[in-house]
Each structure stands twice: as structure tokens, then as C-alpha cells.
Design goal:
The protein is about 35% helix and about 15% strand. By secondary structure, it is an alpha+beta fold. Strands 1-3-2-12-11-10-9 form a seven-stranded antiparallel sheet, with helices on both faces. A three-stranded antiparallel sheet has the order 4-6-5.
Amino acid sequence: MLDAAERALPIEGDCDPRFAAVRDAFAANFRDEGDLGSAVCAIVDGRTVVDLWGGFVDAEASRPWRRDTLVNAFSVGKGILALLALACVEAGELALDAPVASLWPEFAAEGKDRLTVRALLAHRAGLPALRTPLEPDELYDWDLVCARLAAQRPWWEPDLAHGYHVNTWGFLVGEVLRRATGRPVGALLRERLAAPLDADYHWGLAAADHPRVSPSHLPELPLDADLVAMVGAARGDAEHETMIRHAYFNPRGISGFGTVNTAAWRKAVIPSTNGLGSARGIARVYQALASSGGAGGVAVSAALRAEAARVHSDGDDRVLGRPSRFGLGFQLGRPGKPFGPSAHAFGHHGYGGSLGLVDPEAGLAFGYVTNRPAVRFRTARTDRILQALYAAL
């Protein structure tokens, strides 16, 4: 049962009575986990059973979260971009085992000529960071960033190992999709996923929609911060430490610190990091993967969906410095670190707790967003909600 303080929170929306425990878990996060403003949505077998939002968009708790509030969901966008790539494969516009350079000839430089689209999606390109320092505003120059990535020498031999491409993955995959379809990736998202699925999720948000955005309340990053120590990369290897530093902070604002609440960030297209959306919008995108029949005219065959969820990269991650597991762009559960209680769920976390996932076995599509990120990807907030959700299924 909720206590008086929890009942006083501005929590709105709809929740099927069968899933009342999910509402309780969502509300308890404000008490136990420091949630400021957040939203959660679950769709089961095509029916929305949970669609809740609550808390506030400002630290002063004066402006409540609304039904149409958007927030930066960080790396949740990688899963959405992965689905967009699958849609292009399904349409015959993209072949998983074709060399990236067959679509993007400049990419063949520095020994990258044989890297396949499949390996690129699985974080095996060896391009998790730009070698050449960029000026802050160059972050928003799509063509410049892509040209630098295409021309540069990889940090390891492509497809020999994997490492989480924190911020570059969106540029790399997005440019491949642009070359394959002739459409910029922000427009492709609107046309292929957001519009047909009625999903409120965006790369390159129109200025008219900026008033709907909740600020992201990130920790302050001191200008003299030891960035290598902060991401746990120090190990006496200068090349490795430069790679890590540049993966997160070249240019400094590429991960969102210091830039996430600016108009320039919201207008830009940085698919790995700057997707703005609602929990409902994220769940509606993942609904297209919840069954082989798809949703809203967007369908991915059962065979391709299974291939996307098959392990393509596993074990030591050269960027994260710990084990990770990826399918075709999607994070996969590992022993001890599943997506909730299910071994069948896959998707992508966003910095600090936001999450999008699908569980085809359960017919489940799920989205959660928050404006006060925690320190890590996976958090007790989503674990608590997913436990309650699966208990009700």
C-alpha cells in the first residue's frame, strides 16, 4: 500500500488493475530511489496495460510531469536505431553481411574495407572514439563527424574484438542507413517508425516541441575532472586511456554533460545519445518487435528478430572494461544481469536508468524514462518495476 506522501505525488495515467503492483513500484521509486520525474509504459499483446507518469520536471517541484512530456533518454536510442536498421534489412535496402564500404566507399580507409554491417551493429568496428580532437560546436556537424570516422585508423583490428561505441555508434549506423536509403536518419526515424507507430520519440526535435522537454538533471562535471579515472580507464596504457577519454568526451559535450539542456542539443541528430521521447513512445517503437506481426504496419520477420537477439559480441568489452553482450545493436542479458526476470527480453538501457525493451515470448514492449539519472545504466528503479510487471503477467 502507498503511504500518504506517495499518494500526494502527482502520478497520473492509466494502469490495468491486474498491474496495480507496477503502479506501486513506480510510486515507490520517488520515495526510495530519488526519482524526480519519470514515466513508464508497458504494452502486452498489443494492449497498453500500464501508462503512467509522475513527479516534476524541475528541481523545485513546481511543474508536474505531463502526459506529453519528453526527456532525453540517452542510449535508449541505440535500440531504436537498431530496429530502424532491421526495418531497412526487411525492406531489402540493407544487407547484414555486405561490407560497410560497399555503401560508404570512404569508409574503406585504414584497413576497414572488409568490415560488415553486421559487425558494425555488434560494436566490432574498432571506432568507439574520434582520434582527432573536435571543437565543441563540431559535435553538431553530421558530415564532419562521419567523414572523420570514415578516414581514421581504428583503435583495434575491425571485427577482432568488441567495445561499446558510446557515442560514435549512432553516427556510424546512421550514416550507413542514410547511404542505403537516401534519407537522413532523423527523417528516416519519423517516416519509418515514429509516424506509423504513433511514437513520440525524436532525433532532431522541432523547436516548437522544445517547451515539452523536461530538463535532464545531471550531476555537475568539474572542468578539471579526472575523466579517465571517472570512467575507470586508468591502467598505464596511454593509447587506451586516450581512446576512453575521447569515447566519452571528444568533444566534451558529446555524452550530454553540459549540453543536454541546450536548444542546439535538442535540434541536433546524435542517435546514440540525444533521443528525446516519452516512455509511451519508446514502448510503441518496441511493439513492432513484440510479435512477428509487428504493429502499425512496421513488422520484422521472426527469423530476423531472432537473428537480432542472437549473441554477436560477448565477453571482455574493450571500452567498458567489463563483460558485455550484444546482438545486432541490442544489449542482451547475461548471467546475473538479465533484462528483468526474463531470459528472452532484449533492448537497450540509457544512462541513469531509462530503458526500452521487448520480450517476444511474453508479447511485451516496455519503456521507462527519468529526468534524474542515477550513476549507472541499470538501476534499482527499473529492476523494481520489471519485477512487479513480470509477476503480474
